Amino acid sequence: MTQAPTPTADTVRRLIRTLLKDDGGGAGHAPGPDVRPVADGAGTGTWWVGDRHVLRLAPDREASLRQRRELRVRDLVRPHVPVSVPVSVSRGEWAPGLSCTLDTRMPGGSAEDHRVSAVGETDLAGLLTGLRAVPARQAETLGVPRAAPRSLEALRGAARAAAEHLAAADEFDPVRLGQLTQPAAVQLGIQPGPAVLTHHSLTGNHLVVSQDGRVRGVLGWGGAVVGDPAEDIAGLAVAVGAPAAVRAATLAGYGARPCLRGLWLARCDTVLHLAEALAGRGTDPMPLLRVRLRRAWEAILLERVTDLRGPEDGA
Q1: How far is 131 from 138, CA to CA, in rounded Å?
Q2: Largest Cα span, the chain
Q3: Which long-range contacts (CB under 8 A, 24 or more apart) does 133-141 make?
Q4: How far is it, in rounded angstroms, from Cα 75 to Cα 6?
Q5: Cα 78–chain centre separation
Q6: Could you write out the DSSP letters of every residue in 66-121?
Q7: Mean pLDDT, residues 40-50 taken together
Q8: How many CA atoms lie within 13 A of 62 on its CB side?
Q9: What is the mean pLDDT of residues 191-216?
Q10: N or C end of the chain, less CB within 10 A?
Q11: Residue 78 contacts by C-beta under 8 Å, 6 or more apart in sequence?
């Protein structure tokens, strides 16, 4: 496979002039807007362009396919959700066979840095409600894959082993995982029902939050799948805390079972991710992973619910 060239500020500026040539961005000999990588380090694929746009460069052909699908998914989702979804103002190729998109930049920070307010929780509820309203079959015709629900029993077993390693490093009390018993894991197994379109990566960095705590936009739609809605509840538990995630999901019409399933998916995931980082694997810094674990393990009253029998409500 041909190696993609390493993007530099000069190549990005030339690309921007090409992408914006129809609206005067390449006229004359003007130097063009300021460009800088979003993340430190050479070879970054995401660049700030002035204060209005962000340029995303797909690093390989597989990523190019995902990016092109993401643009279609964003257009499909936009009419259904109350928060902003990025708009591509120009697209093309930055190297042979490698796609790029110049998107509008959303004002605000991430949920990693800004607390979501009570009104922001209603924004998240609207997001979950809107995703459930998107016709799943229509999403699949755009190439969105269908993902099988994860086994909470298997995840519980892996998390228990990881928790022992964390305990040895004084990072986590494995007794806390005892709240998720084997019968409870079975009871919180996926129930029959229609799959829905899920963002599947509702991390704090993908939630654009304003200073007043409103959720103004959602980024990162490249991993969207048709599958288990509890995965998005789990993502929110890690991003904004378990109580806020459950309140948002409840406002969106989800009942106790999907909320508790999402909660335990998040808790097991955060234990596993912290253990992987402790073993020298993974790319996220330990302090961030500790914050995510703390958020997912925040106590909620719903944990006292033990009887989940009866008609499923919203899953």
Answers
A1: 12
A2: 70
A3: 133/80, 134/76, 134/77, 134/80, 134/196, 134/197, 136/194, 136/195, 136/196, 136/197, 136/226, 138/76, 139/73, 139/76, 139/197, 139/224, 139/226, 140/226
A4: 30
A5: 16
A6: HHHHHHHHHHHHGGG-SSB---EEEEEEEETTEEEEEEEPPPSEETTTS---HHHH
A7: 75
A8: 2
A9: 93
A10: N
A11: 85
Within 10 angstroms of residue 94's Cβ, the number of other Cβ atoms is: 23
- State how far the Cα of 266 lies from the Cα of 263, in Å rounded to an integer: 5
Query: Which pLDDT band, with edges at 50, 70 and 90, does 29 fall under?
Result: low
Q: Who contacts 124 (Cβ-Cβ below 8 Å, separation ≥6)?
A: 116, 215, 236, 240, 244, 245, 248
Q: Tens digits of per-residue pLDDT, 164-182?
A: 999 999 999 999 999 999 9
The 10 Å CB-count burial string (b at 16+, else e) for 144-182 is beebebbebeebbeebeebbebbeeeebbebeebeebee
| 197 band by pLDDT with thresholds 50, 70 and 90 | very high
pLDDT over threshold 60, residue 306: no
Query: Which amino acid, 126?
Result: G
Structure tokens at 123: 């924004």
Q: Where would I find the beta strands (DSSP E) of the chain? A: 35-37, 46-49, 53-57, 88-95, 98-104, 109-110, 196-198, 207-209, 215-218, 225-227
Q: How is residue 189 written in tokens?
A: 């197994």
Do 215 and 120 contact (CB within 8 A), yes or no?
yes
Tokens coding 289: 């992973």
Pair of tokens at residue 57: 């460069």
Question: Which tokens hold the place of 63?
Answer: 């990523």
Alpha carbon of 259 to those of 39, 100, 223, 232, 282: distances in Å? 34, 37, 21, 10, 28
Amino acid type, 228 = D
| Residues 242-283: tens digit of each pLDDT | 999 999 999 999 999 999 999 999 999 999 999 999 999 988
* Prediction pTM value: 0.90
Confidence at 30, pLDDT banded by 50, 70, 90: low
